[in-house]
Amino acid sequence: MGTFMNGSPANQPLIPGFGLSLPELVRDGSMSECETGGEGMFRRGEDGVLHILTPRDRKADFVVYRDKTLCYVKSAMGHPAMYPLPDAGFEGPAEAVLMDLDGTSVHSEAFWIWIIERSIGLLMDNPGFRLEPEDDPHVSGHSVSEHLQYCIGKYCPGRSVEEARRHYFAVTEYEMNEILKGRGKEGAFTPAPGLKEFLLELKSRGIRIGLVTSGLYEKAWPEVLSAFRTLQLGDPLELYDAVITAGQAIRKGQAGTLGELAPKPHPWLYAEAARVGLGLGPESRRRVIGIEDSSAGVLSIRLAGYAAFGIGGGNIAASGAQPLVKQQFGSLLEMLPGILGAHG
After folding, report:
1. Residues 341, 17: Cα–Cα separation, whole Å
2. φ, ψ (nearest 5 deg) of residue 86
3. Low-confidence ranges of the chain (pLDDT < 50)
4. How far apart are CA 339 and CA 333, in angstroms?
5. 327 in Cβ contact with 65 (< 8 Å)
6. Residue 97: what pLDDT?
7. What is the pLDDT of residue 109?
8. Residue ranges of the domains in the chain?
9. What is the phi/psi pair of residue 53, to 5°?
10. Which UniProt keywords apply (predicted)?
């Protein structure tokens, strides 16, 4: 069964955007209060700032005022950004479902972490290099460059992310070609349990489906094709109503689009999927639900103005993003009743 976030205790004001009280946000350690936030731009008790909250992974700061909450999204690449955190409700039946790819639709995180390990190993001239378990929240859910920058900072300071990217895309190109030829790493892409039944049920109800990934097109599209071939679902573009990726990699003599600075946890991929891909305006927001397994994805959905359902297996709890989730489920099929008719 899914688990709903609890209602606020009596006489406790709700934090704008969260719809929860401060004690609820901090009681399990998901969020903690800070004196300063936004890398020194904000201080609690000054200029109307009531609270500054940060999740367990410290990837963002939430600056709370009486009537609004601002989210400061940090950047390992040196380009932070700030967005309002809107209130986000959901009332089924859904008009549209926005779905993440890695970890939600296809289980592939282990494969992509393996690619990162190989890339950093090449950068360090250490073929046996392996990440540590505590690195997991920092090498999933965000952009490739964010993942590589984290690894460089911890394991090989002084090397450049540009060097690491060259290794990453060379390894990725080779491995993806091997997979498309029927070779490659065993079990790289496994469809999530119940994915076929889930998608066909949504389609039969006339619910539009958007697929949203922070992965660049060249790595994301073979995943989708692999999953659809396994499930015998035919052409993904006939089933999905919109497919939004993080664009194309920029290489010598080649133009890219969007790229590495604006994917999840920024709102733009989910906003693009709903507003442009599916043509849904703000008036439809309470009939749209986003599904994610990562903290970056959940924050992206929420900053785009939509409610989020969480699915198990990712880093939502470990990263402290649980308060941003409307409801948490163990599988896609578990959440179908909520999408098809339950009000939350």
Report:
1. 24
2. -75, 155
3. 1-8, 343-344
4. 10
5. no
6. 98
7. 83
8. 3-84, 96-108+192-340, 109-180
9. -120, 145
10. Hydrolase
Residues 191, 110, 28, 73, Cα dihedral to 10°: -100
What backbone phi and psi angles, to 5 degrees, belong to 31?
Answer: -120, 150
pLDDT of residue 10: 56
pLDDT of residue 182: 73
pLDDT at 297: 96
pLDDT for 342:
52
| Amino acid code (one letter) for 102 | D
- Alpha-carbon gap, residue 271 to 279, rounded angstroms: 10
- The domain covering 96-108+192-340 belongs, at the CATH homologous superfamily level, to HAD superfamily/HAD-like (3.40.50.1000)
Encode pLDDT of 12-39 as tens digits: 899 999 999 999 999 889 999 999 999 9
In this structure, the number of other CB atoms found within 10 A of the CB of residue 186 comes to: 6
Instruction: Name which of 270, 278, 304 is nearest 207 in CA terms.
Output: 278
Q: Give the chain as a 3 state SS string.
A: CCEECCCCCCCCCEECCCCEEHHHHHCCCCEEECCEECCCCEECCCCCCCEEEEECCCCEEEEECCCCEEEEECCCCCCCEEEECCCCCCECCCCEEEEECECCCEECHHHHHHHHHHHHHHHHCCCCCCCCHHHHHHCCCCCHHHHHHHHHHHHCCCCCHHHHHHHHHHHHHHHHHHHHCCCCCCCCCEECCCHHHHHHHHHHCCCEEEEECCCCHHHHHHHHHHHHHHHCCCCHHHHCCEEECCCCCCCCCCCCCCCCCCCCCCCHHHHHHHHHHCCCCHHHHHHEEEEECCHHHHHHHHHCCCEEEEECCCCHHHHCCHHHCCEEECCCHHHHHHHHCCEC
